[in-house]
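Throughout our pipeline, every protein is held as a single compact record rather than as scattered files. Such a record has a labelled line for the sequence and another for the backbone structure tokens. This encoding replaces a full spatial description with a residue-level series of whole-number codes. For reference, a complete record is included directly beneath this paragraph.
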Amino acid sequence: MGPKDVIIQTALDIIGQEGVHKITTREIAKRANVNTAALNYHFGTKDRLVEQAMGVFIRELAGTYAELEREELPMEERLLSFLQQFAAFSVRYPGVTKSLVDRMMWAEAGDPALAAAQRKGIERLTGALAIATGRTEPAELRAAALQLMSGVLYPVLLHKQLPDLYGIDYAKAEEREAYVERLYRRYVPGRH
């Protein structure tokens, strides 16, 4: 991994744990073991670095949708695997996930590429749900997709409050996976 990649990964780690508003170039440089001149050379500004780090996160998160295309598995297994991977990746960087959700709220106006990626993901997910459940009504499929994704993301947004509020530690793989599987079974019952 080159210095630019190390800096981006370090920025993701900091944003992921502390949020986008707490990131400073000095802290990134310190944790990445580079000087601030290297940050300026590669990115110019902190905002450009944050944008590139968010872009890496979005691409990697979008990559979890590839699980829905794994033809060697039945769609029910692909769908559950996708939800598990999406949850695991999101919880790895809760601050980045929160920032992304905030950006998605305003995506049409401020980020047409993000809005287009959202639509593509929704299409892939509703298509997978149609196959896995046998449902055909578009409004019902979109509602199920929204509820599943909300159910996967909301625990990330609650982050540290989740264990106290709901008794689930989403950061622990075993608890997160059990929760996601229960959620999944509510929308794809009896077809496993």
User: Anything to note?
Assistant: The chain has eleven helices and no strands. The CA atoms of residues 37 and 73 lie 48 Å apart. The domain at 3-187 is CATH 1.10.357.10 (Tetracycline Repressor; domain 2).
